[in-house]
Amino acid sequence: MPMNTDVNLHEPLKKYFGFDAFKGNQEAVIRNVLAGHDTFVLMPTGGGKSLCYQLPSLLMEGTAVVISPLIALMKNQVDAMRNFGTDMGIAHFLNSSLTKQQVADVKQDLLSGKTKLLYVAPETLTKEENVKIFQDVQISFYAIDEAHCISEWGHDFRPEYRRIRTIIDQIGKKVPVMALTATATPKVQKDIQKNLGMDKADVYISSFNRANLYYEIREKTKDVDKEIVKFIKNHPGKSGIIYCLSRSKVEELAEFLVQNDIRALPYHAGLDSQVRVKNQDDFLMEKADVIVATIAFGMGIDKPDVRFVIHYDMPKSLEGYYQETGRAGRDDGEGICIAFYDNKDLRKLEKFSTKKSVAEQEVVKQLLAETASYAESTSCRRKHLLHYFGEDYTEE
């Protein structure tokens, strides 16, 4: 049931989130959902995407279901939401990390109508027994976060995302659907809308231009490790992330930095989960200045004062690159983004893809070609990047 859209949104914004004003398109997006319309939101990293579904979830009747692939993010956001209410049941998540008893408790709160916001992993949503539960719950709207995961042309394709629409239809509630992503080329955007059956959705696109970020490509030579040490020494005490493609490189580089008196820690999916969590927390609490990581790091990391992002290896798509560099300077302060480029690295990535289907190899080839053309370009990198996302940048 659509709400009265003249409702004052500044009061709940201040009361629950402590903000005095909305950023960018946030208010328009929220009013659109409150009015009961399908909504497509393209909002680059740091633009405040999560508020677009958190705020309306508190105002509407029933439970908002947020589908997200990021277990760490779910936990962080649920903890944050619980700080606003007196009742723990106001927000929950359902994913593979819960025990049977915890799952039973969540379902109890859902059915009693206590829960305003529920995060679910896509594979949890598709389980038969959960579909039955959702049929008995009053749902206010669905929000599909990281919606680019639907598209094979996106940088993080997940097949289970393509089943979301079928499940929503199976649950059978006529409620608005919201899709949110921080990176999508025009092609990916069309793909998302088509797959979610939301061709008629209202679309809100924020600019991809992050004026405070500085982009630089350097040639990758045999002295790259020393160059990185020199750069960090010239920015003492500043927080930074260094992305490497392989786990072994992560370990090796982190060790090299430590030997050079830099407070650095490794982070990749092969580390014991307790070590991963500890290293991530040490970085957030500033017990370490630099985190050397594979792209497993950073999904849902909210550290506003990251001052530099270095790509030791070029990533396999410009979307990935934009997403990773976007973790710098979220507080609108300085953000330096340096990538070390060697065409050999991209050829290696292409070789990795030969085990995949021919169609997938084609996708990889095209994404790598875009990355190479960005790295080898002689024109303004910002212009090149924005053009890739379908945006014209006219300033000199």
Features:
single chain; 396 residues; alpha/beta; seven-stranded parallel sheet; six-stranded parallel sheet; 16 helices; 13 strands
Structural account:
- This protein is α/β, with parallel strands linked by helices.
- Helix content is 41%, strand content 16%.
- The chain has 16 helices and 13 strands.
- The strands form two sheets. Strands 3-4-2-5-6-1-7 form a seven-stranded parallel beta sheet, with helices on both faces. Strands 8-13-12-9-11-10 form a six-stranded parallel beta sheet, sandwiched between helices.
- Helix 14 runs antiparallel to helix 15.
- The model has no long low-confidence stretch (mean pLDDT 89).
Summed up:
The protein has helices at residues 10-17, 26-34, 51-59, 71-82, 100-112, 122-125, 128-135, 164-171, 186-195, 224-233, 247-259, 273-284, 318-325, 343-352, 358-376, 381-388; strands at 39-42, 63-67, 91-94, 117-120, 139-144, 177-181, 202-205, 213-219, 239-243, 264-267, 290-293, 306-311, 335-341. By secondary structure, the chain is of the alpha/beta class. Strand 3, helix 5 (100-112) and strand 4 form a beta-alpha-beta unit.
**Overall outline:** globular
How many H/I helical runs? 16
What share of the residues does DSSP label as strand, in percent? 15-25%
How is the quaternary structure best described?
Answer: single chain
The main sheet orders its strands as: 3-4-2-5-6-1-7
Element order: H for helix, E for strand: HHEHEHEHEHHEHEHEEHEHEHEEHEHHH
Mean pLDDT level: 89
Radius of gyration: 21 Å
Instruction: Profile the largest sheet.
Output: 7 strands, parallel
**In whole angstroms, how far apart are the ends?**
48 Å
